[in-house]
């Protein structure tokens, strides 16, 4: 919104980064915290979110803009709640909500397969595995190391500075120059390979609305990247065997040495 | 293909998720929460990759995100096994329980001012009594004892 005025954009970015750092520092577990400081941290976090929303650029249509804003806010707010929640189980649940937001962002971006795969693989498999391990390994009640964190101020400042630098470099993005290099871009090659060659706007619209996107992604995955798929399969098998081996040998060793056991 | 403002906004969301995950993995001391934060960083990278892939009309970014999913599944399986083994040895999920492995020049992490109890204890809802408690049958408890 404020991209035309560099001074205003810089002030907005500085305010957003500062309030994000202070908010994270107030919200991260630091032992004893008063509810007032938590409320202040929440308010500052909302201010930082508003600043970053204002940093974003306007999209073409109101509907697309609203949907993208909602799903990205869900993702970011749930991600922040993941790292500031005391209870690890609540952290995992908030992370599931963040995954839902990320899947929404991917769907808005037009990656249908990845949006669904994020829900199925991450929220359905990986997160359930995290919850199982939490149930196996969680001591009763909230552990003291969940109520303190190491160097919250330095970490919050480091994260906010990284976010500010990334936002600054993202804000300098400009459209790709038409003739940057001699080799034709893959987008142009794909557009040429299309059976009909309509105008650029029609190409963009048809590409967004295309129905066989998953099929084309699968053809790309099992065509050009077939060897990588095989290697990934070997990696999955190796991690499966390795996990079982570590569990069985570790339990045998713990039983023989009489260590702390579940 | 996608417009430049959409790419800008999607990269912004990816950067925010990555920074949040970085802060979490630096501060939190629970091993499982640290792995959750690593997954959050992976999500931020995935959003950025998909945005670039859609902007350039290239499938490479989305294919790379599929491999990120695969490697994240492997990493979570192996890492959670290690977390379980670490818990079986120390009885804690604390990363500072393994600080004997630190560099010799670094100071020891000491929890000097641990809170005695959680100050943010959950407040359970209380029901105000409505009406008079019925007197009850004095024989009832005896009858129940015999059943």
Structure description:
The complex is a heterodimer of chains A (262) and B (147). Chain A is 74% helix and 0% strand. Chain A has helices at 6-27, 35-55, 62-84, 88-109, 112-137, 152-171, 186-193, 200-209, 213-223, 226-257. In chain A, 29% of the residues are buried. Residues 178-184 and 194-198 of chain A have low confidence and may be disordered. Chain B is mainly alpha-helical and 147 residues long. Chain B has a domain at 4-97: Helix Hairpins. In chain B, helix 2 (31-56) runs antiparallel to helix 3 (60-90).
Q: How confident is the prediction overall: mean pLDDT of chain B?
A: 84
Question: Which class of one domain in chain B in CATH terms?
Answer: Mainly Alpha
Structural class of chain A: mainly alpha
Low-confidence stretches of chain B: none
Count every beta strand of chain B, where a strand is a DSSP E run of 2 or more residues: 0
Q: Can you write the helix and strand succession of chain A as a string?
A: HHHHHHHHHH
Name of the CATH homologous superfamily of one domain in chain A = NADH-ubiquinone/plastoquinone oxidoreductase chain 6, subunit NuoJ
Largest sheet of chain B: none
Query: What value does the average pLDDT of chain A take?
Result: 82
What's the tally of helices of chain A? Answer: 10
**Order of helix and strand elements from N to C terminus of chain B:** HHHH
CATH class of one domain in chain A: Mainly Alpha
Distance between the termini of chain A: 56 Å
Strand proportion of chain A, as a percent range, falls in under 5%
Greatest interface and its participating residue counts = A-B, 112 and 85 residues
